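If you are new to this repository, start here. Below is one unmodified record pulled from the training split, so you can see the exact layout before writing a loader.
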Amino acid sequence: MSQQPSVILATASYDHTIRYWEAKSGLCYKTIQYPDSHVNRMEITPQKRYLAVAGNPSIRLYDVNSASPQPVMSFDSHTNNVMAVGFQCDGNWMYSGSEDGTVRIWDLRARGCQREYESRGAVNTVVLHPNQTELISGDQNGNIRVWDLTANSCSCELVPEVDTAVRSLTVMWDGSLVVAANNNGTCYVWHLLRGTQAMTNFEPLHKLQAHDGYILKCLLSPEFCDPHRYLATASSDHTVKIWNVEGFTLEKTLIGHQRWVWDCVFSVDGAYLITASSDTTARLWSMTTGQDIRVYQGHHKGTTCCALHDGAEGSPG
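And here is the target side for that same chain:
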């Protein structure tokens, strides 16, 4: 097996390619053709072994270290765009959400769909609670649902804004907060409280009018960023805004992209943010200065998503 890069950065574009980059230099060291569909979301497994690519309607897993352009696994039972993908902390199973209205769980060893939950609306976003036993999904109809994996049922439903699509969800690493971003540029913030049962309760904390345009991705900062806690919001208004979770005050506006910003991901220590935009580029930003310090250029159509794993081997990522 070839020497694994310590930092894995991948981007996907409407040009039907996935590119791997040297994060520091900005050099593209590998390009994979992805002719099947456009790519909606990418995620790297916790052990840095695979890159999961969610398209329409399949999810494909690529070996990060292989020169082969072929996926090593394919998961095919969704029937529409797969909009969300992620992994349990040990990498034993994968979850996904699709515009076909379902949330699914896949066993990576048995290579099949283990469970299917019906959301009754096109699913745009799914996150795994840090307790590893609940999935939270958001759909096009504005519903947020908690799926209790132990009880195998929907344990909670809420609709922050009727008929307003929930575009993105993010959970604080310690499970204390959840944020939902919608098509009106609004973020809803809840405290997550454990009730007397094992069920998570949502206590409204804040409503943030973050952008005039769509929010395409919201993301809370990782554990090693503490004691500073930030919320990043990427928008169709070409900016990314960084909010201090203490009071949800605006810390910085990241300006440089020329078109919609579709995706963003923090470095493991929260010191940097990588963004992907319709302007064909991905950018690396310093959270200290709010300036872009690297531009990843090579795609010739809009860049729709990015994935980063710069943590130690086997650390949660």
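Two things worth knowing about this chain: The two ends are 21 Å apart (CA to CA). DSSP finds no helices and 28 strands in the chain.
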